[in-house]
């Protein structure tokens, strides 16, 4: 039971008297109904791979954990309808593989895909590296099955592309972090399985140049661009430092890089032929300064290893201040520049460390403590760093959490960055579905906001 009490990163932990692992939606519904009668709060938990403490209980033994791990069936695949219906506890990689074996693609892809569960992915509206082309998790859902806070089961597993008969209720539960009900099943959209993949590692002078080249590439290549990841030089250096397998792909050092992946039908050579003129035009316009195209699957994997090695390498560098933010793509360069300048003025020696999904404006802005200084001197600075970074994000029309969610980590901060009316609407929705506040209490919305909504209802 103890592994379910502790987050894999950042120290979130808790304690409960009971963990329940139902094997079916009906079993889960029975447990929820009992909790409703006894006024027992519930913490829903999937793969326990979250980053904001949303799936960890508090430490007072007041709650129970309901884990969906045993609910892991692939229920049905409908190739004519291009949908797959699965239990909420299915591991994301298992769904990807089942789709691939059927000749289809389920495109949601993220670092934890070997252990995260689809119920958690939907409850947090996961993004991942292919959101540029396919959107976030909510764009890939045709229908949901949800156990409501009173134990009733809502069966919304309709695989329809068009259904205009009232509110789109499934969207209420996607991104709600388990605060409105527990997702127990999902009907997901499948797409054609790409026949060709081309991966390129490109050097660029700055984020603004990278945005200019991406605009050019989207105009020329359209939906062929599946991923466009931005990394500064520090990310490459840290990844190499802590993983002997990682090599520098280019002969010269450059300040910024793009990791670009194209997918489509036909031969890889055809995709590469489409990419090369866009690459050359970028060089002529000085949007790019160098680049390499992977000539094999092994080389493509090596390029992706750089991107995947950046977060792990960063963890070993000392105290880092992690931000999962989004801004309009046109403001990415300004955000990074203003945030770095403000932090450098306040905290001399702090090291810039930015990477993320340029194609959808989601930047993981994770500055690292000054080199050679004791970690203890930096550990207490997170609130002030957050305030500086998030105020800049808000000023640029962005969001303080792009794909990780609010959980326990950002629950106090959203009061500063959402309007009173928006918070009121969220709290009223919570009161409507969960008037006893039994579903994942203390996550996403605090009790004061919920009580205020009740008083104004």
Automatic annotation (TrEMBL):
On the tree of life, the source organism's domain of life is Bacteria
Which Pfam family, any one, appears in the UniProt record? FAD-oxidase_C
Has keyword rRNA processing?
no
Keywords, comma-separated and alphabetical: FAD, Flavoprotein
**Per its UniProt record, what PROSITE patterns does this chain match?**
FAD_PCMH
UniProt family annotation: Belongs to the FAD-binding oxidoreductase/transferase type 4 family.
Family annotation (PANTHER family): BLL6224 PROTEIN, D-2-HYDROXYGLUTARATE DEHYDROGENASE, MITOCHONDRIAL
* Protein name (database record): FAD-binding oxidoreductase
Q: Which organism is it from?
A: Bosea minatitlanensis
Native organism taxonomy: Bacteria, Pseudomonadati, Pseudomonadota, Alphaproteobacteria, Hyphomicrobiales
